[in-house]
Recover the amino acids of this structure.
């Protein structure tokens, strides 16, 4: 809970002066929510977390921000805190399908499979449908090594044709050390919107996991053409430049 105190905001403002300038000029909850979405779509999860929190300071009825806050804590691998904030949100909005899914994902990452399963089942029983609920269902099946996990992710892709669900599905597969499945969803993200730098970055991460060094370099080149100052992509490019391609490693072994 301490990460949302005043000191936390001050530290973030020093690291992100443009966001700090906006904080001084704007106090509209919808503006904070839009900024949270922008950060999330660039892979800046700490920034998105802060913006969701600021939006909730202005308007605590924004369920999307409660869920987003939990999702960003999961991305930052702060699983107990994610579960704590999901419970706080559900105290305000009991039975909400998105918040139940967010809690299920936090429980899943915190290695509480039975609670996660029961919570996501409850989520899917609520009115409406969303890509996130099906993604969480797929993640829990993936953690349990059930073969039907891909059906859930494919169902999620049908619920929302934006590029973000397949990109975040790729991240889930990477978390469970399945980069091959991750790559297929990351590629879908770039097909849906080839102008998004972060989608190409996720493709490159999956390709590197698979030892596909040259394809990863090409994906990063596209990413950096779209956003030359993308720091994470620059760092990955440096790392790739220091790696020996797999075919060279094999050739060295055969030449001994």
């Amino acid at each position: 809970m301490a990460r949302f105190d005043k000191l936390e905001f001050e530290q973030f403002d020093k690291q992100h002066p443009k966001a700090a300038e906006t904080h001084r000029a704007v106090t509209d909850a919808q503006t904070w929510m839009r900024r949270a979405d922008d950060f999330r779509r660039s892979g800046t999860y700490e920034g998105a977390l802060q913006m969701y929190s600021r939006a909730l300071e202005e308007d605590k009825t924004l369920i999307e921000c409660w869920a987003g806050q939990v999702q960003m804590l999961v991305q930052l691998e702060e699983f107990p805190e994610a579960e704590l904030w999901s419970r706080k949100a559900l105290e305000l909005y009991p039975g909400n399908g998105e918040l139940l899914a967010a809690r299920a994902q936090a429980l899943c990452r915190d290695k509480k499979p039975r609670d996660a399963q029961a919570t996501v089942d409850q989520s899917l029983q609520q009115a409406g449908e969303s890509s996130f609920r099906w993604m969480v269902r797929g993640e829990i099946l993936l953690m349990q090594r059930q073969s039907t996990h891909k059906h859930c992710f494919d169902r999620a892709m049908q619920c929302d044709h934006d590029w973000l669900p397949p990109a975040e599905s790729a991240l889930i597969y990477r978390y469970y050390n399945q980069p091959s499945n991750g790559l297929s969803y990351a590629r879908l993200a770039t097909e849906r919107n080839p102008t998004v730098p972060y989608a190409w970055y996720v493709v490159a991460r999956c390709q590197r996991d698979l030892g596909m060094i040259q394809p990863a370099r090409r994906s990063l080149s596209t990413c950096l053409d779209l956003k030359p100052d993308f720091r994470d992509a620059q760092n990955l490019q440096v790392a790739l430049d220091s790696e020996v391609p797999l075919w060279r490693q094999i050739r060295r072994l055969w030449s001994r």
